[in-house]
Amino acid sequence: LGMHILFVTGEYPPMQGGVGAYTEQLALALQAQGATVSVLSSARAKARQHGHLSAELAIYPEFRHWGMAIWPAVKKWVNKLGADWLHVQYQTAAFGMNPAINLAPWFWRQQTHVAWTYHDLLPPYLFPKAGHALRTWVTERPAHLCHLPIVTNEGDFQQLAPKAPTVQKIPIGSNIQGVVLAPAARAAQRALRGYAEDALVIGYFGFLNRSKGGLTLIRTLERLRHAHPHVHLLMIGERVGASDPTNFAYLQEVEALIDQLGLAERVQWTGRQDDAQVGADLAACDVLLMPYEDGASLRRGTLMAGLASGCAIVTTTPQTPLPELVDGRDLCYVAPGDAQAAANAILQIASDETRANALRQQARRRSQLFTWQAIAARHLELYESTAYIQL
């Protein structure tokens, strides 16, 4: 048998969240390339039975809390399963803001190889008045304590690499398989959603939180209403995610703005759906608007899904380098929080079919940089080449 990798993740399906979806896709792709993969996660990932094999993946929904007790508990699982690598999929909120996980690699590395993927570099909340320097130290500690630290994008790489020279960059993939709809199937999907042929359908994918610019989304729709009589907004997917309780409060702000501006008739929420339905809805939109407050980034699985689905994308100017995607060729950038600029960009695409099709083709082409097969192969290469490092 190949190498055995044990993932530790604060969220995993059926919990809603990008890190859980990423972990599942990576695990399946690694397994397809000959590795054995097990997943230790939150007890909230329970709807899949204990030790349930999802396509031969062993899932153990073990943990209710992520405090110090995880140190010996995870070590026991490493022994029990004979894991060659222990790989933490880290996002601050997914581990309940608890810093115990950040220091754990020091304990675990005595027994096995430890890898650590940063899905963000947001410092955790430690205690009142904990300074930014201490919180940043806690966030960056694992990069110094594990054999293989990984980031998902160039901005995070530039932040960590000077301090942790062993850090590697591997992008994330789309958790949605892109669907290509023939013109008749696309028209049928739009009709299914109740849109007339001359409708301008703006899509948004993923649940809402403050960093994703939901209020800008609604203000853009308000501006478009005056320019296009049949504009609609299709909100694709679940409304809120599992890891961050502030998401729900933000959703209520967005819903209040929709009501205040009298836009309820123009906004449709699909709710949770399977990947094929998500793919069909993405393909049916005229433009995908993703107005991230902190700019477009390769750590956004929702952006990856838009590329894989061949969407004409309007998103916000990256705040850190994003050399892989070029403005005007692969997608269109506008300033964060600028609803008028977003509306103008959408109207330009909607009025120029040749340009819209060029953006769609190019998006699909760029998504080939981020296939799960390539991502899994790169992981295996790094597991093999760093297995000899002595810490």
Give the count of structural domains: 2
CA gyration radius, whole angstroms: 21 Å
Determine the CATH superfamily of the largest domain.
Glycogen Phosphorylase B
Describe the global form. Answer: globular
- Main β sheet profile: 8 strands, mixed
Strand content: 15-25%
Strand order of the largest sheet: 3-4-2-1-5-6-7-8
Q: Which class of the largest domain in CATH terms?
A: Alpha Beta
Q: How are helices and strands ordered from N to C?
A: EHEEEHEHEHEHEHEHEHEHEHEEHHH
Describe the structure.
The protein has 391 residues and is of the alpha/beta class. The protein has two domains: 4-173 and 371-386, Rossmann fold, CATH 3.40.50; 183-370, Rossmann fold (3-Layer(aba) Sandwich). Helices cover 40% and strands 17% of the residues. The protein is built from 13 helices and 14 strands. The strands form two sheets. It has an eight-stranded mixed sheet, sandwiched between helices. Strands 11-10-9-12-13-14 form a six-stranded parallel sheet, sandwiched between helices. Helix 5 links the parallel strand 7 and strand 8. The longest helix is centred in the N-terminal third of the chain and has 15 residues, at 18-32. Mean pLDDT is 91; it is low at 49-53.
